[in-house]
Amino acid sequence: MQTNRARLVTQLLSAQVAPPLLASNLYEVGAEGVPRILPGVGGITLNVRVGDSAFAVEGDHIEPAVSAKHPDDRLNAAFCTLACVGNVATVAGGEAKGERGVVTGKHGGVEHVIIDFAPEIMERMRIGDPLDVRAVGVGLELENAGDVRVFNCDPDLLDTLGLRREHGVFSVPVARIVPGAVMGSGLGRQTVARGDYDIQCFDPKIVAEYGLDALRLGDLVAIRDADNSYGRVYRSGAVTVAVVSHGSSYIAGHGPGVTTLLTSPSGALAPVLDARANLATILDLR
Q1: Per-residue confidence in pLDDT tens, the chain, 286 aa
Q2: CA geometry: angle at 171 spanning 209 and 166, to 5°?
Q3: CATH architecture of 8-135
Q4: Spatial CA neighbour of 134 closest among 150, 111, 157
Q5: DSSP per residue, 30-85
Q6: What is d(CA 160, CA 176) in angstroms, rounded to the nearest whole number?
Q7: Domain residue spans in the chain?
Q8: Sequence-separated (6 or more) residues with CB below 8 Å from residue 8
Q9: Rg (Cα) of the chain, in Å, rounded?
Q10: Coil vs helix vs strand at 119
């Protein structure tokens, strides 16, 4: 695929390992009316990484591996926008200084960037450790792509996704297809370039039909009838390709979160099912 990568700006961003967060009232009431106290967003999650099931652990909105945030909210908005999936992250201080990881997603609301590190590196990391991200990808475009737009994607990652173009349509390997009807939290927000939105998994019939209970963190998914061009909307015939960035949720309207990579309101993205379409495989992280 021909792109404008030679014109892209590359910047060094700084942030910190973000602490774990809980609801102010401790309990979160699930869609079935059951209150729970569970681990949630943030922190260094030692036993959850891309490639793992989005439903494997007792948690809510678990962010795999390391969560990152700039302590200044205004600067964090830029950090979350400019960092892209596939960018290289480096630990800039502490016992693990110099070790490298890879950005695997973003999480809106809390405004976290999610970074994968190997387990032996995470064991040497601490909350508050400084992190540098080599940010490149904002402004990335495919040449002669019609209405296909790219978001949150390092150009090197785009090169490895396996896109093929034929008669103006781009085929894209994905692990799962998701119906736009079950997309929840994050709909309508115009923060496509810095957050995520959630796949609701509360309808057993839809979950079984589309195999949503098999979703893995890091999976590439194609969302039918979803246009993310200028905010997240339901649009018949549109297709959005995204990566599963955080784990499942019991809360109504929520579920595994996805970070947008590609979108086309006309449906010029043709998903091709491929079980290997996961960041753990594509980026050789596991």
Answers
A1: 899 999 999 999 999 999 999 988 899 999 999 999 999 999 999 999 999 999 999 999 999 999 999 999 999 999 999 999 999 999 999 999 999 999 999 999 999 999 999 999 999 999 999 999 999 999 999 999 999 999 999 999 999 999 999 988 999 999 999 999 999 999 988 789 989 999 999 999 999 999 999 999 999 999 999 999 999 999 999 999 999 999 999 999 999 999 999 999 999 999 999 999 999 999 999 8
A2: 140
A3: Beta Barrel (2.40)
A4: 157
A5: -TTS-EE----SSSEETT--TTSBTTSSS-SSPPPEEEEE-SSHHHHHHHHHH--B
A6: 18
A7: 8-135, 149-282
A8: 136, 137, 138, 139, 140, 155
A9: 18
A10: helix
CA-based diameter of the chain, in Å? 54
Kindly report the pTM of this predicted structure. 0.96
User: 149-282 architecture in CATH?
Assistant: 3-layer Sandwich (2.102)
Element (H, E) at 15: strand 11-17
